[in-house]
Amino acid sequence: MEFEIARVAVALFGCAAGAYFDLRNNRNIPNALLYAMLVVGVAFNAFGLFGSAPAAQESMVAFVVAGGIFAAGYLLYRAGQIGGADVYVMGSVALLLPAQPRIFAGVAAAPYPYVFSVIAASGLAFMAYMLAKYGVIALRGAVKEKKGVDAKTALGMAVVALAYAAFVYVAGANGVFGLSYFVLVGFVVFASIFFMAFKGRMARMMAQEVPLSKIEEEDVLALEYMDEKVVEKYHLKRVADANELKRLAKLPIKKYCVYTKMPPFLPHVLFGLLATLVFGDVLMLLIGA
After folding, report:
1. pLDDT band at 44 (very low <50, low <70, confident <90, very high)
2. Which phi and psi angles does 221 have, rounded to 5°?
3. Which strand (E) or helix (H) includes residue 219?
4. Is the four-CA dihedral 220, 142, 191, 165 of positive or negative sign?
């Protein structure tokens, strides 16, 4: 990978700055930072297209992968599942670092684009954070209220658990993976089942009613906790972008239910970047263990 040190430096600076603003500036990341990361990533790969054959191929793959991340990220953004800044940062990382950097010798590289290693490590860190922050409170509330899950959710939880059991049985019998790999996958399965069971309760803890003056651009409206008739009548959208905020100002609604306590994600992206730079892809690392 050409200009590897410069690429890594830009990615680290961008993710660190993004994480800082995500934590200290109420998840408001300056557009100048996001655009700068993207432009530098595009420039590196545009230059690579005119280099050697391997460099040109690597640059083309980087553009394709980044395009896929932006496309999928946009859909998730419109659904209120991820922030717009998160999409920009991950897409920029895909451009800046199309392959596993070799700054640290002997790291476990994956056969897929490096950004997916970063996303996997970031996702694991985010899962652990969510369990630590909301898990005990959600479980305690459910026990206190003696409220179980509905049949559909219970079925989904059972399917996930059975799928993991089948995976452990088949893979364990063949001796393909070590114990650490099963533990990692088991953690993901446990977290997934927990989130399925307490998704609604955890989401409610992050939402609160606020006047329009307190809603900021790109805030996510908790439409499921608002009057269904009001949502349908005024065609309220999930994400309050600039145009939606102007439209909301004309409506007679006094308060909106908004996810004001959504956890920041970019600090976990920074963690994922640092972890994979030093140790490599977590799955490949465990397979080789």
Report:
1. very high
2. -80, 135
3. strand 219-220
4. negative
Structural tokens at position 101: 């950097």
Cα 103 from chain centre: 25
C-alpha R_g of the chain:
21
Q: Is residue 289 scored above 60 in pLDDT?
A: no
Structure tokens given for 84: 């717009």
Model confidence, pTM: 0.85
Return the minimum-mean-pLDDT range out of 28-42, 56-70, 146-160, 240-254: 146-160
Nearest to 277 by CA among 105, 21, 133, 160: 105
Residues 234-265 as b/e (b if ≥16 CB within 10 A, e otherwise) read: eebbbbbeeebeeebeeeeeeebbbbbeeebb
The phi and psi torsions of 255 (rounded to 5 degrees) equal -135, 150
Mean local confidence (pLDDT), 113-119: 94
d(CA 167, CA 223): 37
Given a contact cutoff of 8 angstroms between Cβ atoms, the answer to whether 255 and 209 are in contact is: yes
> Do strands 219-220 and 207-211 pair parallel, antiparallel, or not at all (unpaired)?
unpaired
Domain boundaries, the chain: 4-113+263-287, 129-204, 207-259
Q: Are 207 and 221 in contact (CB under 8 A)?
A: no
How high does pLDDT run on average in the chain? 89
Strand partners for 254: none
Do 210 and 256 touch, CB atoms closer than 8 A? Answer: yes
Report how far residue 197's alpha carbon sits from residue 161's, in angstroms, rounded to the nearest whole number: 13
User: What is the Cα–Cα distance from 57 to 61, expressed in whole angstroms?
Assistant: 6
Q: Is the pLDDT of residue 10 over 90?
A: yes
Tokens at 6, concatenated: 């410069």
